[in-house]
Design brief:
The chain is mainly α and 124 residues long. Helices cover 79% and strands 0% of the residues. It has one domain. The protein is globular and about 30 Å long. The protein starts with a helix and ends with a helix.
């Protein structure tokens, strides 16, 4: 299970980097103070645990399990990046639907999604 948490942490870091998070800041500035890196690692690990916990709650026999697992992942990363207050805005979930749909319909993103689903479901 530790390896699946590590995989999810890597996915979180990758998505955060794409959103302009901690990894891209490191690349632009060359380095970050050790305390900032430790905090980023802690947040990513905590987020990974939450994602794994929510994915485990999806029924094993649910035919949409993979898609739902990716949605949990995408939702958690976006809320972590843009603020958890968005969880109370119904428009956020429409935007989430639109993002997931666009990603699923893009061939390159669809490959990444399948890989992410594999990592997400490996521990559940």
């Amino acid at each position: 299970m530790a390896s699946s948490i590590a995989s999810v942490t890597q996915l979180v870091t990758l998505i955060q980097a794409q959103l302009g998070g901690a990894a891209s800041v490191r690349e632009r500035k060359g380095r970050i103070a050790p305390r900032k890196v430790a905090k980023d690692d802690y947040v990513a690990h905590k987020l990974s645990g939450l994602i794994q916990q929510r994915v485990k709650q999806i029924a094993q026999d649910d035919p949409q399990r993979g898609r739902k697992a990716f949605r949990v992942f995408l939702e958690a990363v976006l809320l972590a990046h843009f603020g958890e207050a968005l969880a109370h805005d119904p428009k956020f979930y429409q935007v989430l639907d639109d993002i997931q749909s666009a990603m699923e319909n893009d061939a390159a993103s669809a490959v990444m999604i399948q890989s992410a689903i594999g990592h997400l479901l490996a521990g559940g």
